[in-house]
Amino acid sequence: MPDDSSDTSDKNSTLISGGHLVAKALKAEGVEVIYTLCGGHIIDIYDGCVDEGIDVVDVRHEQVAAHAADGYARVTGKPGCAVVTAGPGTTDAVTGVANAFRAESPMLLIGGQGAHAQHKMGSLQDLPHVDMMTPITKFAATVPDTARTADMVSMAFRECYHGAPGPSFLEIPRDVLDAKVPLEKARVPRAGHYRASTRSAGDPEAVEKLADLLAHAEKPAILLGSQVWTTRGTEAAVELVRALNVPAYMNGAGRGTLPPGDPHHFQLSRRYAFANADLIVIVGTPFDFRMGYGKRLSPEATVVQIDLDYRTVGKNRDVDLGIVGDAGLVLKSVTEAASGRLNGGASRRKEWLDELRAAEQTAIEKRLPQLRSDASPIHPYRLVSEINDFLTEDSLYIGDGGDIVTFSGQVVQPKAPGHWMDPGPLGTLGVGIPFVLAAKQARPDKEVVALFGDGAFSLTGWDFETLVRYRLPFVGIVGNNSSMNQIRYGQRAKYGAERERVGNTLGDVPYDQFARMLGGHGEEVRDPADIGPALRRARESGKPSLINVWIDPDAYAPGTMNQTMYK
User: Fold this and answer.
1) Taking the complete model, does pTM exceed 0.90, yes or no?
2) I want to staple 307 with a disulfide (CB 3.0 to 4.6 A). Which of 5, 48, 288, 312 is the partner?
3) By the 8 A CB rule, do 388 and 411 touch?
4) What one-character DSSP code corresponds to residue 104?
5) Residues pairing with 549 in the sheet
6) Mean pLDDT by 10-residue block, N- to C-terminus, for the chain (567 residues)?
């Protein structure tokens, strides 16, 4: 007589589906919201999220879902999550995943897949998702069995934090997701017990060497990059620059580490500093195109690079000292190591800081006429200057565009850490609305101010309706020159004025009317004197808003004109 005790045991077990196991794993990671566009392959995850108290936010395009997951990770420091269906649902999300990959943002994309039982049979929306995602993620895999579902989710989250953070991808076949298994046969991760801290304070000998270099440098400079915010190392960075009297420059998410007006806060004299410093410390920033691949640093300077990823240190340019570790922990250790050996060196740097401040002032005065210009169409410098004046300590600023955001990078100064968001080094247009969505959900107490180029807004702008639907107010500004102006400049530079308008000219779209049509607040501005009042009315409206500002199409940002690809 056969032994059917195991069958009896299974009958008495609590059965759980793959989708509900996904939700349990998300809950264990602390995920509070998933961003999604619905599809038949993934709906069991929704059902599980309802049971686990995880919000399901539905958007109009999967690119928006992926960008929102990226944005949520940046704002909260916790991994974001997007869930999309198979085939075009997953391919639509590729851009958002790629952007998170280059920006070192931890997020999990879950994609649907046809049933295992129909593998290679041509099932609906079947594509080799894992093959496509592998080059742009830290981890990409298929969930092979329902009992492994939660385990694979926790594995993906672990990989998000291996070295510098980044995205992971899981595809889950439909029959794996929908099937049910006895709960005791599934490994369900317990919150706080399935991955270790990856924080490292760096090699102690290297830390000691950097402390000594900083103590004795006559003209040091430090660049505080995105990893300062990623590691939540703001306090350590501020302590170092103040204790050691080091001028600081900030880029990416590192903007706002020091508040405007701080004596160590510098913005416009970076090229001068890097050409004249005797010690340059680069924190959490690769030597990529934004740094001229390291060639903009004085060849006579001692160069130190601190990064979470060992592969980034010394890439494209030799360094005198490289430290792999958590930016906050490394900087804290350096400050402590240097505290007893300053020997008055920090106080002697007053002349160096005064020299940089003079260079800073020269740059400001050079563009002052444009910052205050009353011209119409409006000069972009005037627009971004008005936005900078409008920001408060609670304003989280988002830049989404090409030329107009390049203008803003020279003028807009966030008042606090974590209050600047841009796409990052992939240069992806269309992140603005998804970032607004994520930022307002993650930090409803913050005012969100977003500047869009008209081309950038067009890519994901329909999800303005999602912001209206979820009642998420923000102040949006479209710098409208009816052009993809950053590309237009390059075409003019390479091919002449007679061919500058090929493939880059947009219609004169009244985006203020678009906002009102979808239930938001909208205004049009043609006179620079009206910018400030329009911004204040948008704030007071309590609605998602778009202020359509007509800007001069023949004004180009210096950063646009200096791009090496056009030379």
Assistant:
1) yes
2) 312
3) yes
4) T
5) 479, 525
6) 46 87 96 95 95 97 98 97 96 97 97 79 77 97 96 96 95 94 92 86 94 93 97 96 95 95 94 96 94 92 96 94 96 91 69 95 91 94 97 97 92 95 94 98 97 96 98 98 91 91 94 98 98 98 98 89 65
